[in-house]
Every structure is written in C-alpha cells, then in structure tokens.
Write a structure and sequence with these properties.
234 residues; mainly alpha; Arc Repressor Mutant, subunit A; Tetracycline Repressor, domain 2; 0% strand; disordered N terminus
Length: 234
C-alpha cells in the first residue's frame, strides 16, 4: 500500500524523491509568444490586439510578455521584424547570385508568388502597417538593411542578363520587385471583392495556377529584349 501511495504522489520519483524542475527554454517561450502575437495582430491589428488573448494562445503570462518585449508595441515591432526576416532569409536561399539571369528571375517570381499564397498572415500585417502609414516599420532600421541584398541580387541579375543579350536595358531593380509583389499579392488581398466583381473564385486552385503562370510570363516578357522570346514559363 505504501509503495502504491509513493508511486501516485505527484512530483515524486519511484524512490520518493522530488522530480527536478522542468528546465526553462527562453527561446521556445519567446517563439510561442511571437507566433501567438502574429496571429493576434493579423486578426485584430495593433489597436485591436489584446495581450490576454496572446497569453492564452501562447500558454504564457503577461509578465513573460513584458519581460521579453517590454510592452505591446515592442511585441508588435518584434513580430514585424520576424516576418520580414523570414521572407528575406528565404530569398537569400534562392542563391540568385549563381543563377543564370532568366532562371534567377523565374525563381524569384515563383518564390514570391508562392510565399504570399502560403502566408496570408504576412499580407495582413503589411495591410495593417500601411493603415498606420508604416509608423512602426520606420522604427526598425534592420528592415532596410535586410532588403539591400535582395535589391543588389536583382540588380546583378539584370546587369548580367543585359550583358548576355537576354534582358532589355534600363530596368530599375526596385520597380521590378514592386511589380513582382503586385503580381503576387493583389489577388489575395482583394480576393473577395474581385471574386464578386468577376463572378469567379480567385481562391480556386485552377485559377491560382493560371495566375501564377500569367505573373511569370508578364515579368519575363517585360524583361525580354524586344523581338526575342521570353524565357521558359512554368
């Protein structure tokens, strides 16, 4: 009977000694808070977001949030920096510097299209921050530093493509990237209104596949030397 009692005692080992405390994992806690906060800010924006909902979703407490991030605005800044860091890191993995010019642009267009398709949370955050006129993004100098390698990689692709005679000259890398983003996200951010206007489901997989091919062809056709055929689409 005594043995059964010891076995069932909460927090005790088979010998009756207290179990060691579960080791803390600050990085896991911080990540759980960031993930919960991202969902909250996407759904409710900065103003409508509630710390208590973030604590419930992350299974933490208010003290931990303020310990890691200072306040709600600090947490929002951390979420912005995190999501922009994700897309920049994945863009770097495309290895555009070693890609042939047409293939490099193809990789970038398809990656951007697919990223936005899979990350509606990113689009929601962008929309919320635009409503705020980028007030918080301006407080993150790291965001611009993250973007410089992307612009330089596109500039390099354009220069090499022009030198090889496969791209037209005089293309601005920032203008080109803004066009790639526009081709990749407008149908998502305006999905419901456009679906009503055109009596078509812009979330249909078949429609999205056609849109993906269209976006790639638009960009490659624009870059192609007049009279030349654009690069492979698909």
């Amino acid at each position: 009977m005594a043995q059964a009692s010891n076995t069932g005692r909460a927090g005790a080992t088979a010998s009756g000694a207290a179990r060691p405390a579960r080791p803390r994992d600050p990085e896991r806690t911080r990540r759980a808070i960031l993930d919960a906060a991202r969902s909250e800010f996407c759904q409710h924006g900065l103003t409508g977001a509630r710390i208590e909902r973030i604590t419930r979703r992350s299974r933490t407490n208010t003290r931990m949030i303020y310990h890691y991030f200072g306040n709600k605005e600090g947490l929002y800044l951390a979420v912005l920096e995190s999501v922009y860091g994700e897309i920049r890191k994945q863009e770097q993995a495309l290895d555009l510097g070693r890609a042939e010019p047409v293939e490099g642009i193809r990789r970038l267009v398809l990656f951007t299209f697919d990223f936005f398709a899979a990350r509606s949370d990113f689009i929601a955050l962008i929309m919320n921050e635009n409503i705020l006129r980028a007030r918080f993004l301006k407080r993150l100098p790291s965001i611009q530093a993250m973007t410089v390698p992307l612009v330089e990689a596109i500039r390099d692709l354009l220069a090499r493509g022009e030198a090889e005679g496969v791209f037209r000259g005089g293309v601005d890398p920032v203008q080109l990237y803004v066009s790639i983003v526009a081709q990749s996200q407008l149908h998502i951010s305006n999905r419901f209104t456009l679906s009503v206007l055109f009596n078509a489901d812009l979330g249909d997989p078949g429609w999205l596949a056609a849109r993906r091919a269209h976006a790639l062809e638009m960009i490659l056709s624009y870059l192609a030397v007049p009279g030349a055929r654009p690069g492979r689409v698909g």
